[in-house]
Amino acid sequence: MAKNLILIKIGSSTLTSSKGNLDLENLNRIVAEVAALIKQKKQVLLVTSGAIVSGAEKLGLQKPKTIPEKQAAAAVGQSRLMRQYEKAFEEFGISVAQILLTRDAIADRERYLNIRNCLTTLINESVVPIINENDTVAIDEIKIGDNDTLAALTASLIGADLLLVLTDIDGFYMKNEEGISYLVSEIKEIDQEIKAAAGHPSTQLGTGGMITKLQAAEICSDAGVEMGIIHGRKTGLISAYIAGEKVGTHFPPRVTSRESRKRWLAHGLKQEGTIMVDSGAESALIKHGKSLLPIGILKVKGKFSTGALVSILDENEKEFARGLINLSSDELAEAIGKKGIGEVIHRDNLVIL
Fold this sequence. Notes:
Blueprint: E1 5-10, H1 24-39, E2 43-48, H2 51-59, H3 67-90, E3 95-101, H4 103-107, H5 109-124, E4 127-133, H6 147-158, E5 162-167, E6 172-175, E7 181-184, H7 192-197, H8 210-223, E8 226-231, H9 237-242, E9 249-251, H10 260-268, E10 271-277, H11 279-286, E11 297-301, E12 309-313, E13 319-324, H12 329-335, E14 350-352
């Protein structure tokens, strides 16, 4: 598949020197490679880490630990980081734009569309959007959590052909029977063995690690977006991957495309409750594309209002769908098992996982 709309995620380790400072040399090298892609008529967006590292360097903080310290470092560092990107891209006559996001901006349908329209307009005008989480205001309720997830959600939002994740290793590694690590060139399915091989989620500099990259790959797979992991410090790998050379680790999507509303329902919104349904309702939803009716509901958990996103579970409490609810949790509790009340979740507002 042609890779014309590309989102590149640049991790903290890729932009941090051995001394803990912002690595301008590597930033400039990456920008030069992105500029070469744009010259080939590719459309490129960046999701970048590095704001906290840049701000901590300016403030003289060794490693910010508290939330206020991290927010202060992000506030100082974001403008410094953008200035470096702007200077680097100016060398190639390319303009950049700063986009700061939190989860509520993606979860709200109107804001979701506004963001998508803004990003589309920018790339159509040959401007490179440079995206980061808004760490200065993000709290648990609106925090996306890490830039791997942010990148995957953004790739899904804009319908990217490829999310390319730059990190500090060559790709995803597993161990053979002798305990020797080897690079996995392609992962078609993220099963328990793959997840176990990902190891601990924490890294020295980043907030994610390989676990969050697998989660990002799952989001991309559901959205019809290819994802790749490559080393962020080796020259030429970006163009090599896009050209189809066997570098890094490749995660092919499960589907070729996915309607944007379904992507939004599946991954953009925060779930506010759960509904357990019987086998008949499960079959009606999965096999026949029906709407969810109260007659098939067994149990409701959580407190939510009309329009909230809820998870739909089978009788074994396994999630198989998500949807926007037409009733509040109190109204739904009264309607369980009854006929003639109408649709609890319309099929147009429901996605099968």
